[in-house]
Amino acid sequence: MSATPRILILGIGNILWADEGFGIRAVEEMNRRFVAPENVRFMDGGTQGIYLVQHIRDCDVLIVFDAVDYGLPPGTLKRVEGDEVPKFLGVKKISLHQTGFQEVLALAEMMGDGPEHLFLVGVQPVELDDYGGSLRSEVKAQIGPAMDAAREYAGRFGVTLEERAVPLPEDATLAGNEVQLSVYENGRPSDEAAFRHGDARVVFAGNGDTPGGAN
Question: What is the pTM of this model?
Answer without folding.
Answer: 0.84
